[in-house]
From TrEMBL:
SUPFAM superfamilies: P-loop containing nucleoside triphosphate hydrolases
Family to which the UniProt record says this protein belongs: Belongs to the CbbQ/NirQ/NorQ/GpvN family.
Domain AAA+ ATPase span(s) in chain numbering: 47-198
Naturally occurring in which organism (per UniProt): Sporosarcina oncorhynchi
Protein name from the UniProt record: MoxR family ATPase
PANTHER family on file: MAGNESIUM-CHELATASE SUBUNIT CHLD (PTHR42759:SF1), MOXR FAMILY PROTEIN (PTHR42759)
Superkingdom in the source lineage: Bacteria
Residues passing through the membrane, by range: none
Amino acid sequence: MEDMISMEKVKRNQRKYSDETKSLIQVGGYIAPIDFLWEDILIGITLKKPILLKGPSGSGKTKLAQSISALFNQPMHSVNCSVDLDAESLLGFKTIITKEGQSIIEFIDGPVIQAMKKGHILYIDEINMAKPETLPILHSVLDHRRMLTNPFTGEVIHAHEDFSVIAAINEGYVGTSPMNEALKNRFISFSIPYLTGQQLREVIRAQFPQVSEQLIESLMNINEDLKKQVINGLLAEEAASVRSLLDAVALAQYIPIKRAVLYAIAEKLEDKMEHKLIMELVDTWVK
């Protein structure tokens, strides 16, 4: 019976997506680079499976999570992982407050506990940046138990039925480490590639409706060349980032394209040879 109810929710959410896709695009929502990717992720979310988004920087992982939040009208609590992430950053902390003239200790819920109690989305960004010993505290939250015993208060928290978890990783980047198997096995994983072709053009047009077709065409051509060099191993993945391309579009409305690409893309790379290659590619399209 529970599986039948879940699948009915999936169908309703798929219909809702079909009805609302255009409005999501108009407000800068996520556009899937693969036809079935968005709907498959929605099925995972509806079944309350923790979702892991794997992809290069600027491929739209955060935008995807934000679009799910918008689609379901479900607030999202974000955790930005780093080597400094600790249990308090995830769960909350104790503080002293004054109440009716007396000082008392009160626990302030962190993003994990807030999302669990309120039935919101928990978004864990760059989860492989956190120290491996920090994240096991989430194991019971991410598996079938969907619960947590708060080590600071002893409170046992059972997740609201609408609670969902989305995590994102940039694999192979400096400062990251492989996820341990116990953690990774709790997720359903999806690879998120960069947008290409007409889909990328739609994103640009949605965010910059006043930009000329000539400007879009020039930057699209430059972006395609950058992707080819990424595939050939001559440029780092972030050179073809959609985020960087959109930054270049924003700048190119007011300054020459060549300077826009310099500031939005080339200057982000530390390797001087990569920097030079990007600007040479630009010269082939912009005179």
